[in-house]
Design goal:
Structural class: alpha+beta
Helix content: 10-25%
Bound molecules: FE2/S2 (inorganic) cluster, fe (ii) ion
Order of helices and strands: HEEEEEEEEEEHHEHHHEEEEEEHH
CATH class of the largest domain: Alpha Beta
Distance between the termini: 33 Å
CATH superfamily of the largest domain: Naphthalene 1,2-dioxygenase Alpha Subunit, Chain A, domain 1
């Protein structure tokens, strides 16, 4: 049996020629794309540090003085709402000698004080105090504020981009905001935020999201059993414009709870928007728009072998006044959690398999052809655009 090793020239396009063919004849990505440190580092540089990434709902920083600090692909980041009400993102690294000015997690404060030598920064990033070290001709506080990261809002969520030269978020999203405007996401509240650590490469999760092929099998006793799908639509790049890949399934009502459990009222939607609409916004954000709710999954890659997922579940604000709102939310969360764990089990199993030294590449069936789009989106950025046919 042939042992497959990561090549020394892992970024050489010649290794991916078979992946660049059309979906009906293409090979899936080689195993090392899911395990290689070198491939991961290139993804970090060419994908995650150059695109718009979702980092949660704006309600994570509800008041001036609130913040959260976290790791994004190895970069310490802090997001804060300052006294002026604005939300801003910064590299969470002191401009003296690199201490993290905000402790990891969520909190509230008036200033970020570095734990190392107590340089202090306002929540809008200005350096305001440097103990035992005064300004002079060669040192001005104004030159040493926290390094800002671009941050914009859409659908109530915060999106960051490390690339100062990048186009604005709305150009990046293309026609997506207009397509989902009927859900009125700005008027929704986050009913829950759940975190999952998955022992798999980020691409396994990202590919699975746009793969309806697995649903009748992996979710046979949940999604598929509760609400059979009458019709599906897979992304067509001539119809959907923007940095996302979508699929849609039509079925009756909601799949959020088990049959017989009470359901939330339905959002008034035309026939074409019923069922569920699932856009994955490249590279880290998956959304689901349903008849009674929506969700957002943010993805945080943590090296080639681990991925953290944060999932927010949202409903229209007015539902808060329903009798037994809390009890209904518990039912919806239970349903989503079961489905999520069905996926996690498969993804961790798949990662174990691709790590095998004899793993061979596979093929795409018609129903998972969007996985081919997802893989080629990554290759376009990691090794450069595909050769013209
Ligand atoms: S590293 Fe922050 S004050 Fe020295
Ligand atoms: Fe799934």
């Amino acid at each position: 049996m042939q042992v497959v090793k990561e090549p020394a020239d892992v970024l050489n396009p010649a290794h991916y020629a078979n992946c660049r063919l059309s979906a009906d004849v293409a090979a899936t990505l080689p195993a090392w794309c899911y395990t290689s440190q070198a491939f991961y580092e290139r993804e970090r540089e060419e994908i995650f540090l150059k695109t718009w990434n979702c980092v949660g709902h704006q309600s994570r920083v509800p008041e001036p003085g609130t913040y959260f600090a976290f790791d994004f692909v190895g970069v310490p980041v802090v997001v804060a709402r300052a006294e002026d009400g604005q939300i801003r993102a910064f590299v969470n690294a002191c401009r003296h000698r690199g201490g993290e000015v905000a402790p990891a997690g969520e909190g509230e404060c008036k200033l970020f004080k570095c734990p190392y030598h107590a340089w202090s920064f306002s929540l809008s990033g200005e350096l305001v105090a440097t103990p035992f070290y005064d300004e002079s001709d060669v040192f001005k506080k104004a030159d040493h504020g926290l390094k800002p990261i671009k941050l914009e809002l859409w659908a109530g969520f915060m999106w960051i981009n490390f690339d100062e030269t990048s186009a604005d978020l709305h150009s990046y999203l293309g026609d997506l905001p207009q397509r989902v405007a009927r859900w009125n996401a700005d008027d929704m509240i986050v009913a829950s935020r759940s975190s999952y650590n998955i022992a798999t490469n980020w691409k396994q999760y990202y590919e699975n999201f746009s793969d309806p092929y697995h649903v009748p099998f992996v979710h046979k006793s949940t999604l598929s059993k509760n609400k059979p799908v009458s019709k599906r639509e897979l992304h067509d790049p001539s119809k959907y414009i923007g940095n996302y890949v979508m699929h849609r399934a039509w079925f009756d009502g909601t799949r959020g709870v088990a049959p017989g459990e009470p359901t939330f009222p339905e959002i008034p939607l035309p026939e074409e928007d019923r069922g569920a609409f699932y856009p994955w916004i490249y590279p880290n954000a998956g959304m689901g728009f349903m008849v009674d709710s929506m969700f957002m999954v943010e993805m945080y890659p943590e090296g080639p072998d681990n991925t953290r997922i944060e999932r927010s579940f949202l409903v229209p604000k007015a539902y808060k006044d329903l009798p037994d709102f809390d009890g209904m939310i518990v039912n919806y969360l239970r349903g989503m959690d079961v489905v999520h764990h069905e996926d996690i089990e498969i993804l961790e199993m798949q990662q174990r398999s691709v790590k095998s030294p004899v793993y061979m590449t596979g093929r795409f069936a018609r129903m998972d052809k969007l996985v081919h789009d997802c893989q080629n989106w990554v290759l376009d950025r990691v090794i450069g655009p595909a050769p013209q046919a």
